[in-house]
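Ig-like domain-containing protein
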Amino acid sequence: MKLTVKPTARGVGAGLAAGAALLLASACTGSTADPSGSESAADAVDVVITPGDGATGVRPDVPLTVEAEGGKVTDVTVTQSQPEGGASEDAQTGEQDGGGEDGASEADTVTGTLSDDGATWTSDWNLRPGTDVKVEAVAENADGEEKEFAAQFSTADAEQGNALELESNFPSSGDVVGVGMPVIVNFDLPVENKSRVENSMEVVSEEPNEGSWAWLDDQTAVFRPKEYWKPNQKVSVNMRLAGVDAGGGTYGVENHRLEFEVGRDQRTTIDAKSHRMVVERDGEEIKDFPTSVGRADTRAYTTTSGSHLTMEKYANLVMDSSTVGVPVDSPEGYKLDVDYAVRFSNSGEFTHAAPWNNSLGEANLSHGCPNMATSDAKWFYENSYMGDPLEVTGTDRQVEWDNGWSYWELSWEDWLAKSETGEPDKTDDTGTPGEVHGDPQD
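Tokens:
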């Protein structure tokens, strides 16, 4: 890996995983000293690689450093390989992102930051647990003459039952999404060191933006940009979770990379008072549909106003009132087969075809879902991406910010307050705002 210069992360990590010993050896191999005892100018530079050559059981969250004494570091290559009898190579280097192509992942690449004086290189990310690590470095003296150095060591395995893994994510690699789309990550175990995990997940967009991770609970993190994504661009997410200390002796074991595309800018507004549903694309109105929303005689049958996102869609769907607390066999219960359903909340709200509703554009008579003519619902179904903004106005029931993906209900300040770091994250490939490593002294 060539030198990669990135801004130095802020903050100091802490915490020691149980059973993971750190062996620090003074460093390094590759000296070319003259056997007669005289040294040339090229031999005046020396390098210390930490952890040192031959170290075993190294904590994977300890920073890897290459320090040049009497010169500057000019090149560092870090290779991680599975020891004989360990997990398969594919499990260590392949992408595990719910939809990405197989092969080596950029998230597995060990990049580093060079100090201002060029004398010290420090790894940006943690190392994979249970691997053999080879470090090859080149340093030059004041005359520009280079010398090579190397060291090999191994990292400690994550303990069984304490291996943090990615359980699911939205979107998946290859998805085309709307301009409001968040990145949602679900872990299989609770995360205590949320800032450490947060800083290990880097979001990069072709069009620079600013965003932040927020924690919905101990196992769910969501990235939302400050402003909607600009349309027609690619976004990548490098989740460098391998080696991160998630707390309580739990370490991440694999890296993941997502690559998705933001499509056209399509936004929909539903006005409960005018009974109209207007669709704009790239700033131009392209559709104006008659609709009929919730009749609002109960809270359950009141359509939620506020900022929503389209979430998922079904060509055919069974709608059951029991899912919103109304038994099917009660006077107000229902169980219907509907076509062209597009979800926009977790409280049972979908746009869908309702050929039985003769009051489209005139009155609100539904159980809470915006009813549409079959041809209109089909168009919306076929032309909706996951993450398209959908705004509802005119009802007295405001959507909760965590009902579905209604994260845009929160102001940027309130969203940022849900980040463990409390700092915005630039999406221009300049790194994350805080520390990912643990303290070598702990």
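The chain has a mean pLDDT of 87.
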